[in-house]
Automatic annotation (TrEMBL):
This is T9SS type A sorting domain-containing protein. Keywords: Signal. It holds the Pfam family Por_Secre_tail. Coiled coil: none annotated. Residues 184-250 form the Secretion system C-terminal sorting domain. Residues 1-29 form the signal peptide.
Length: 254
């Protein structure tokens, strides 16, 4: 029986065709897609509370604050992600808002002044100019959503579909649901069948630590099969590209 998934997406890297070259490489990415209910994937709140349901992490500001945020205390590798992408939205009317990023130990903010749309959109940051985002291991970062109007007593809830660090400057994260995408069986021992109403261009598979183990350039195939029989038993992220849209789902090799 087919199982259809609405994909919260999120992940793009600089890739190498590892299978063709005969070895694995470390990929340039760290992705958070909140696809397990109640699991914030290591993120904690700042001036607010976090809750995860339905593949979305909701940041609810504390009463009276103008700068709620999400903090990540665990290690990230700046060398593996020059760009930050945040797929998010706010309910109701569009809100005048700054999204700000910092490495807490450095304190330098990388800021984007935006209007957060009532529809999910991806907001991209180039972190190469942030002096704290360097080296091979950084702990404690903050993404803050701050009102541009200093007289505003509070800001609205923010719904975050994905947070991604990678080396793609203009990643376009959207849900692949509009392509009627599905994949099955899952779990599987060998092959995964993919289906969409538009051609699937590329499929990449990664370990949960971000190492690429499979990269297939499919050209334009609407219903390809992906053979993962050579992979070790475990859970993997599978990135699917349809046109300029990108989606990631978890697959289980048994």
């Amino acid at each position: 029986m087919k199982k259809k998934y609405s994909i919260k997406t999120h992940l793009t890297f600089i890739f190498v065709l590892s299978l063709l070259l005969g070895f694995e490489v470390s990929v340039n990415a760290q992705t958070f897609n909140f696809d397990t209910d109640t699991d914030t994937e290591g993120w904690t709140s700042s001036n607010g509370t976090l809750a995860v349901a339905g593949g979305i992490m909701t940041l609810t500001p504390n009463v009276g604050t103008t700068s709620p945020g999400a903090k990540y205390p665990n290690a990230l590798n700046p060398a593996n992600g020059q760009y930050l992408h945040v797929l998010c939205t706010t309910p109701g009317p569009e809100i005048d808002r700054r999204i700000r990023f910092r490495v807490d130990s450095d304190g330098t903010w990388t800021t984007q002044n935006i209007i957060i749309s009532a529809n999910p959109q991806t907001y991209n940051f180039d972190l190469s100019s942030n002096p704290g985002w360097t080296g091979t291991s950084i702990s404690d970062i903050t993404i803050r959503f701050q009102s541009n109007n200093s007289t505003t007593a509070s800001v609205e809830n923010v719904s975050i579909d994905a947070i991604i660090f990678d080396n793609n400057p203009t990643l376009n994260i959207v849900s692949l649901e509009r392509f009627d995408f599905s994949f099955f069986p899952n779990p599987t021992q060998d092959k995964i069948n993919l289906k969409a109403n538009e051609p699937i261009n590329q499929v990449q598979v990664y370990t949960l630590l971000g190492k690429e183990v499979l990269n297939l350039d499919l050209g334009d195939i609407s219903n390809p099969n992906v053979d993962i029989s050579s992979l070790s038993v475990g859970i993997y992220n599978m990135k699917v590209s349809i046109g300029d849209s990108v989606g990631v789902v978890k697959v289980v090799k048994k």
